[in-house]
């Protein structure tokens, strides 16, 4: 699936920035592809891009209207339909990560047919996948595994791949969810695959590659999530990771929305992931811990990362605040899990001592 | 989904009895619903039912032609289409567990539309399922977990539910695959559900029930299978079992078709299943071990079961050869996992000492 850019980001009528995580992800990770935003009068957020109407966007080089919001339930709202149809009539393609397929909304299907523009449903698998073979593939793989959903797995993988690429290392970010797919223009919507084929889809996401190439794979869900653990395990098995990065949000104590499900100790999270991952790659190790520290002031976040590093002896970083340089240093230097100099391992924003 | 009986079993042109496992399952577990068999000239097997043509079957009370074979790939073969259409014209419904949907074969869809008969695709989920809630449900649940696929999980669950029902206990067999669904007329084809919803589907399969009611749930796959472990984990979490039964085929050392994947020690199989199952039911225990002993002579099988019981101290039985009476005795007597008198626990066919 190749989605033509540049993009006009559709924000609809959402009131909360958290409901615009696809648009935010695109602005953070593919800013040069984001030309403007389009909002309904009731929209309560502003992502800081120019407000463009469809004709203006088209004139400035936009090719695709991207639905940048992910309201609960994943449905296309009634009052989005007319503007989406108008965008199609103006000659824009439309890309969506909603569960509702664009083509299943008659007014949208009709407008696309008339304008000749394309509809991209990134949450709909574009190919049938084979049952997993379990066969070993060449190249190296790193998988993000979470203590919960929405703890920063995608940002971690993007930060690591970007850091690797900036150093001239061979590395590819591999998207497993709608926002990641829109950011990179390719990937597999793992959570939309029929269960028998998820591990097989994960195998096909990171095919044979050069021995020194890293696939940096976005994770999904968590082995500790009562609804999504099966998805996480299939992705873990099919990815056959050499390295795991445990992703966690500082301060989160329970699975979001599941108050009866505490998040286990990070030791147990790592141990359970490694134990199960060894089934398809006996040499897997935990290479680092990625912390979403947005809830902490900078000094507390640094202290949190330092304490975590002392406890585990592996690189600990915040993909947004500190970046993944410490982790990639460690990998370039052999990365066996030995405790190295603090500066190299702990991704600390600022150090005064 | 209610599939009207009695059934005429379609055996097509298969050459190997193992490819007729749906028909065999129906004959073993729902013999009073199986009226006859229908075979193409090239068919190489005979399941011992009368060969009936469609009009004869109809006249004797058959309501549905059931595709009783499951060839690799799950597709409807070219030369099945004409006879299936003829069955519809003769007034029979058609039920299928193939991946190919009956309605997607034009000649079949057309014949059904003309005859007014119904098409049942038991491998197609009949309802959308919610994301799992993780909420505790009333009643008791027992889940079959396998060391591999095709080790006897369905037969184990059917044997246990039948034994419970014969004693007047409240118990329901819960089907999770096509053959189980055809045997009972209800269930959920777990392996055909989109991955995000598998645990939720498993929750809905065994809803709130009387405190002394047992849901006896057919398992799918194995936590140790490189392709299907995710399905197994989602089913384990969503079922919230109070009791697990580990199902294993005597003599099987590797995952079938995956020679690089040895089956772990049974201790490890039990421990891994319990460890992950505790996430949604901290009180889960392993209540027994079910052995498919078809490869063993009767005396070796008995010895195998006895040795296994000495090793684990829980009921060990063969659902076909010994039945599940020993397990159900144990449950009725408290079933804490204590080692009880041999006779009660080990389901031995014949004892001479």
TrEMBL record, chains A, B:
Q: Which InterPro entries match?
A: DgcN-like (IPR011669), DgcN-like_C (IPR035086), DgcN-like_N (IPR035402), P-loop_NTPase (IPR027417)
Domain (D-glutamate N-acetyltransferase-like N-terminal) spans 45-125
Q: Pfam families of this UniProt entry?
A: DUF1611 (PF07755), DUF1611_N (PF17396)
Q: Which residues form the D-glutamate N-acetyltransferase-like C-terminal domain?
A: 131-328
Read off the Gene3D superfamilies from this record.
NAD(P)-binding Rossmann-like Domain (3.40.50.720), P-loop containing nucleotide triphosphate hydrolases (3.40.50.300)
User: How is this protein named in the record?
Assistant: N-acetyltransferase DgcN
| Gene source species | Sphingosinicella rhizophila
Q: What would be the name of the gene that encodes this protein?
A: dgcN
């Amino acid at each position: 699936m190749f989605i033509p850019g540049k993009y006009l980001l559709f924000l609809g009528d959402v009131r909360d920035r958290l409901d615009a995580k696809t648009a935010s992800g695109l602005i953070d990770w593919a800013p040069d592809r984001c030309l403007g935003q389009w909002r309904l009068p009731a929209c309560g957020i502003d992502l800081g891009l120019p407000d463009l109407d469809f004709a203006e966007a088209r004139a400035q080089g936009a090719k695709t209207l991207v639905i940048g919001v992910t309201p609960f339930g994943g449905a296309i709202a009634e009052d989005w339909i007319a503007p989406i149809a108008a965008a199609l009539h103006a000659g824009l393609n439309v890309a969506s990560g909603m569960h509702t397929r664009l083509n299943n909304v008659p007014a949208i299907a009709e407008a696309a047919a008339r304008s000749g523009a394309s509809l991209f449903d990134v949450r709909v698998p574009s190919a049938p996948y084979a049952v997993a073979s379990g066969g070993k593939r060449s190249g190296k793989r790193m998988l993000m595994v979470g203590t919960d959903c929405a703890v920063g797995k995608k940002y971690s993988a993007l930060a690591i791949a970007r850091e690797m690429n900036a150093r001239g290392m061979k590395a590819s970010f591999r998207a497993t969810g709608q926002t990641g797919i829109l950011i990179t223009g390719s990937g597999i919507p793992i959570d939309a695959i029929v269960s028998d084929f998820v591990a097989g889809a994960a195998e096909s996401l990171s095919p044979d590659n050069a021995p020194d190439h890293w696939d940096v794979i976005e994770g999904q869900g968590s082995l500790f999530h009562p609804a999504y653990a099966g998805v996480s395990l299939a992705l873990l098995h099919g990815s056959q990771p050499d390295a795991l990065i445990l992703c966690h949000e500082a301060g989160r104590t329970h699975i979001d929305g599941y108050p009866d499900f505490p998040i286990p100790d990070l030791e147990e999270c790592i141990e359970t992931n490694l134990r199960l991952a060894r089934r398809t790659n006996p040499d897997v190790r935990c290479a680092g811990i990625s912390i979403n520290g947005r809830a902490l002031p900078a000094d507390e976040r640094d202290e949190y990362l330092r304490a975590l590093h002392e406890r585990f002896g592996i690189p600990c970083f915040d993909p947004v605040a500190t970046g993944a340089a410490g982790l990639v240093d460690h990998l370039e230097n052999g990365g066996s899990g030995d405790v190295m100099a603090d500066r190299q391992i702990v991704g600390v924003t600022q150090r005064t001592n």
